[in-house]
Amino acid sequence: MRAQFVLSEIGVGLRRNLTMTFAVIVSVALSLGLFGASLLMRDQVSTMKGYWYDKVNVSIFFCNKNDAETGANCAKGAATQQQKDDIKAELNRLPIVQNVQYESSDQAYKHYKEQFGDTPVAGLVTPDQLPESFRVKLKDPTKFKVIKSAFSERPGVQEVQDQRDTVEPLFNLLNGMNIAALCVMGLMLVVALMLIVNTVRVSAFSRRRETGIMRLVGASSFYIQMPFILEAAIAGLLGAAFACVLIVGGKYLLVNNWLAKKIQVINFIGWDSVAAVLPLVLLIGLLMPALAAFFALRKYLKV
């Protein structure tokens, strides 16, 4: 009988505040959708970092005959074979180095032509203008500074370059987008909480006579509050369910059917990451409105 009464009160409350309940559902759906998308974007950035950082190398460029005026390291002209052999021997002794590959000027020019093809800049460079280099693969790419500090000032070394610099701006952009999404999510979450509190207060005010009678006949505070809390929880759970639909739809339509076809060099996150986020979204959608309603009712049901 008590359960039937609580359920009937939930139905009455949802019907009386249909417009505000709909607003709560939409706000919760948007805020939790952004929350889930932010978590997935964070996983995507981490995946991309692990993929690209594992592939980039540290390049040690040697002086050639055209670099005599570029710096003190190249003052004596092109790097000698002995200087190259000494550097390679030291690199092979370092525990952080996985392997070392030599690239000649002709090989560097070939890669240059492959990159720029038939563009006008392709004819501006000749093979003798491109330096020889060692491509150093590190076991831990974050240890780049060890290589730079050890070899950047060595005679015959023109420059020590970390290829991570070419992909770092992309990761910074993605991280910035993730922070922006979290900020918008926080704003939407505040709006959703305000709507939940106002909806509960309006519902409690419209049924103040019924709650007053229940208080007089000895009903406990928890029993009186239960219909209002469940109303908010149901609205939040519906919003969370719509958020899950948005997340799954975004993964299927935006990522799998568009981005994955347009940008094939990126290893996008899989459905397992989405499946890990959805239960958290549903849990927050259920608990957040219920707790907001509970604290909002502590004042309005003291009759």
Automatic annotation (TrEMBL):
Family, similarity comment: Belongs to the ABC-4 integral membrane protein family. FtsX subfamily.
Major place of residence: membrane
ABC3 transporter permease C-terminal domain location: 183-299
Subunit structure: Forms a membrane-associated complex with FtsE.
Species whose genome carries this gene: Streptomyces endophytica
Membrane topology: Multi-pass membrane protein
Record-given protein name: Cell division protein FtsX
Keyword vocabulary terms for this entry: Cell cycle, Cell division, Cell membrane, Membrane, Transmembrane, Transmembrane helix
